[in-house]
Write a structure and sequence with these properties.
With about 400 residues, this protein is α+β, with helices and mostly antiparallel strands. Helix content is about 35%, strand content about 35%.
C-alpha cells in the first residue's frame, strides 16, 4: 500500500502542503491540470526553490490575473458550489468538501454560532487561496497514489498575532478546535518556535485526511514544503514522506495492563477474561507466579487499545480483588493476514493466511470450523487439521512436499 507521512517540523499550512507534494515528485503541470477542473479565475502555481534553516524545499504561491489568490474573496457556499460544479473526480470532490465542512464546523464552534448565524464570508479563510490549497492537496495525494495518510502530533504555536477580528493567540482558536474535534495529539514545540505554526487550513486537511501515528514504511521519496516566514530559531517547513507500507507493521496506541492476585477464584478469572474480550481487548492471558508469604498467585495481563484503557481498568476493579493495576504503553509488530477458503475432501474450510513482504508464508486452519467438521463427520480433530493445513499449503503456496491424505 502506498502511504504518506506528514512530519510537521515547523508547522503546516495549505501552501506548505502543496510545496511538500511538489517537492516529493508531483509536477506543477499535473497539479495545475487537476485544479483547472475548478470553475474559478485562471491562476498560476509558482513553486520556488528556497531554504528554511538548513532545509531545502519549495515555497508555493498562487498568482491570478489580478494578483495573489488571497485577494479573491469566497464564502462557504461558494466553496461548496464551486466544487460541485467542477469536473473533479468524485473522490477528490468528496474529500475536499469534507475538509471544508470540517473547517466550517470549527469556525462555527469558535464563534459560538449556529448554521444560520455563521458569517457566510469567513475572514482569513474566505479566499480562492484556501480552496486551491484544499483541492490541490487532496488531488495531489491522489495523483501520487497515496492510499493512506499519517501525521505527527500537531505543534501549537505561542504568542499572539493580528487577525481580521482582533489579536488572537498563535495557536489559533480554529486550529485548536480542529485538533479537539479529531482528538488529535498536540505538542508544545521547543523553545524558539514562536508565532502561528499550524494554520486552520493545514489543520483541517490533516485532521480530515490523516491518522496520527507514524507507520512502518519503506521510504522512497521525501518532499519539503516551506512557509513564508524564515525564522532563525527553527526551519519553517513541513515534510512529506512517501513509501510503501511495510508488511511487518509496528502499531502504537496500545496499553498493557497487569495485576497480581492470590485471592481470586478461577471461575471469576474465566469470567473476567470473557468480559475483557467482549469489551475489545486484543489479548488476555494468565501467568502463574509466586507472591508474598509463599502464596501461589496469578498475573493477569491485558492488551487493549489506548482508547479502552479506562473501561478495562474499571472492569478489573469491579470484577476482581485487585487493589492496583500497572500500566505501560507498548508497541507490537504485526504482519498482513487475511481469511481465505480452501477446497478439501471434507468441503470448503476457512484458513488464516499470513503474508511477509507480500509472500504467503503460513496457512493455519480455522479451529472452530475444523472442530465442527470433526464432530459432524466423526473424524479425529488432528486429522481434520492436518488435512486442511495440507490443502491450504498446496493450493495457496504450492507446497507438494506432503503426500495426499
Amino acid at each position: 500500500m502506498r502511504v504518506g507521512y506528514i512530519h510537521m517540523i515547523g508547522g503546516a499550512s495549505g501552501d506548505m502542503l502543496l510545496g511538500a507534494l511538489l517537492d516529493a515528485g508531483l509536477t506543477v503541470d499535473a497539479m495545475q491540470s487537476e485544479l483547472v477542473k475548478l470553475p474559478i479565475p485562471s491562476f498560476t502555481i509558482m513553486a520556488r526553490q528556497d531554504q528554511r534553516g538548513g532545509l531545502q524545499g519549495l515555497h508555493v504561491t498562487l498568482q491570478t490575473s489580478t494578483g495573489e489568490a488571497e485577494s479573491v474573496r469566497m464564502g462557504w457556499g461558494d466553496f461548496a458550489s464551486t466544487i460541485s460544479d467542477s469536473s473533479l473526480s468524485s473522490t477528490v470532490a468528496q474529500r475536499s468538501l469534507a475538509v471544508l465542512r470540517r473547517l466550517e464546523e470549527a469556525e462555527r464552534k469558535v464563534h459560538r454560532s449556529g448554521a444560520e448565524e455563521l458569517s457566510p464570508h469567513p475572514h482569513e479563510l474566505g479566499t480562492l487561496d484556501t480552496l486551491i490549497d484544499v483541492v490541490g492537496t487532496v488531488a495531489g495525494l491522489e495523483l501520487l497514489g497515496v492510499e493512506q495518510l499519517y501525521a505527527s502530533a500537531i505543534p501549537m504555536g505561542s504568542g499572539v498575532f493580528d487577525a481580521a477580528h482582533g489579536p488572537l493567540p498563535a495557536a489559533a482558536p480554529a486550529t485548536v478546535e480542529l485538533a479537539a474535534m479529531a482528538n488529535a495529539p498536540v505538542i508544545t514545540p521547543p523553545n524558539g518556535y514562536t508565532g502561528e505554526l499550524v494554520t486552520p487550513t493545514g489543520a483541517a486537511l490533516i485532521t480530515e485526511l490523516a491518522q496520527f501515528t507514524r507507520p512502518s514504511m519503506r521510504l522512497d521519496h521525501v518532499g519539503y514544503g516551506l512557509g513564508t516566514r524564515n525564522p532563525e530559531s527553527y526551519p519553517n517547513a513541513v515534510a512529506l514522506w512517501l513509501g510503501e507500507l511495510d508488511s511487518v507493521e509496528v502499531t502504537s496506541g496500545l496499553m498493557m495492563l497487569e495485576t497480581n492476585m492470590d485471592d481470586i477464584s478461577p471461575q471469576v478469572l474465566g469470567y473476567v477474561q470473557e468480559q475483557l474480550f467482549i469489551l475489545g481487548a486484543l489479548d488476555v492471558w494468565y501467568t502463574p507466579i509466586q507472591m508474598k508469604k509463599n502464596r501461589p498467585g496469578v498475573l493477569l495481563s491485558v492488551l487493549v487499545p489506548e482508547s479502552l484503557e479506562g473501561q478495562a481498568v474499571t472492569l478489573l476493579f469491579q470484577e476482581t480483588s485487585t487493589l492496583g493495576v500497572r500500566r505501560r504503553e507498548v508497541q507490537r509488530h504485526i504482519v498482513d493476514r487475511e481469511m481465505r477458503e480452501v477446497e478439501t475432501k471434507v468441503g470448503r474450510v476457512p484458513v488464516k493466511v499470513k503474508f511477509l513482504e507480500g509472500v504467503i508464508v503460513a496457512v493455519t486452519p480455522e479451529y472452530d470450523a475444523c472442530r465442527a467438521i470433526a464432530l459432524e463427520k466423526e473424524i479425529p480433530l488432528q486429522e481434520v487439521l492436518a488435512l486442511v493445513t495440507q490443502a491450504g499449503r498446496q493450493q495457496l503456496i504450492g507446497d507438494t512436499s506432503i503426500s495426499s491424505i
